[in-house]
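Quick check before the chapter quiz. The format below is the same one you will see on the exam, so make sure you can read both the input and the output lines.
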Amino acid sequence: MLPASFYAYPAFLVTVAVLAGLIVGSFLNVVIHRLPRMLERQWRVECADLTGIPAPPAERYDLVRPRSACPKCGHRIPAIENIPLASYIALGGKCSQCKAPISPRYPAVEALSGALAGYIAWRYGLTAAMAGALVFTWAMIALTFIDLDTFYLPDSITLPLLWAGLLFNAGGTFTDLHSAVIGAAAGYIALWAVFWAFKFATGKEGMGYGDFKLLAAIGAWLGWKMLPLTILASSLVGAVIGIGLIVFAKHAREKPIPFGPYLAVAGLIAMFWGERINRYYLDIL
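Here is the expected output.
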């Protein structure tokens, strides 16, 4: 039984959600940094098994061990230096030992996670929709930054996210189960068809299979009616950012840009404001 204050004082719920979001954001930074490296190690072990060449022994490396450390000097970060946002500000954005700068991405991810958690708590209240929206949002944040770093959307996040969406919608949390199942299938098939059409036309691969799975997961959470909006919004976001990178950051036109972050942003737009946007669009028609 949850305390009555969560129900009686919405501001208290929002405050708790922001604090929880900051803590989760700190953990998401670990996931963003370590999960791709964990998968790379796993692939090397699997390749060694296939080739029969034994892989060299490696120390434990997962989301818990070893403790976080400065990449420059190896200083182990104590708990007092790992408080979300506060530690970064207190340290002036630098390692306490070697004074090497700490990437501003770390507090940015924590702040984004906390801010969105607070918005979700304010919007949905203490409901199943709040819990689902938090899971969906935090997964989108992790996938966005992993894809930016590696051009990879891990199955260990996208596939559980897809199944979680179907389970939440078994009770009609965001849409009915029928729409969720069709959304998952249609989301995958839509980008799969675009992938092959582009490959036949140009001989190049325009996106990865992880993008198919991510759109399938978004369809499982939000239903098939949100897929057109998600695809359109991701294309618009991608076009704006892509043009901005080319014009202002001198990004080479031939250099690839990951599509997963645009899908993630579009998925959040569809979750929070999709129904309103669709109604507005239908009213215009």
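If your answer matched, good. Residues 10-51 form the longest helix (42 residues).
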